[in-house]
Amino acid sequence: MNDTIIPILALSIPVIAIIGGVVVQPLIKLKQRQLELQAEHTAEKAAQYAAHTERLEQRVRVLERIATDRGVDVAAQIEQLRDQPPLN
């Protein structure tokens, strides 16, 4: 019985290696391609988020300028003058 197992194992090892190469190689290439596509998608999303963040930062800068602008004080002073009784 041991005499027949050794040749069978000796022949089955290369067959298994060939079949594994035929099956595993395409799976590895497929997984690699999926990872590449995912990386591209992630990079694209990161660029979109960066652009969106930049737009928001610009808007905040504009709002800060408006809030700290001297014109706001002038407008408040004008409104205070309107609330005072007129001088005769």
Describe the protein:
The protein is an all-alpha fold. The chain has helices at 2-68, 70-83. It starts with a helix and ends in a 5-residue tail after the last helix. The model has no long low-confidence stretch (mean pLDDT 84).
CA radius of gyration is: 37 Å
What is the strand tally?
A: 0
Q: What's the main sheet like?
A: none
Q: Helicity level, as a percent range?
A: over 70%
Residue-averaged pLDDT, rounded? 84
Structural class: mainly alpha
Number of helices: 2
- Which residue ranges are poorly predicted, with pLDDT under 50 across at least 5 consecutive positions? none
- What fraction of residues sit in β-strands? under 5%
Name the assembly state. Answer: single chain
The SSE order reads HH
Termini separation (Å)? 127 Å
Shape: rod-shaped
Short description:
The protein is mainly α. It has helices at residues 2-68, 70-83.
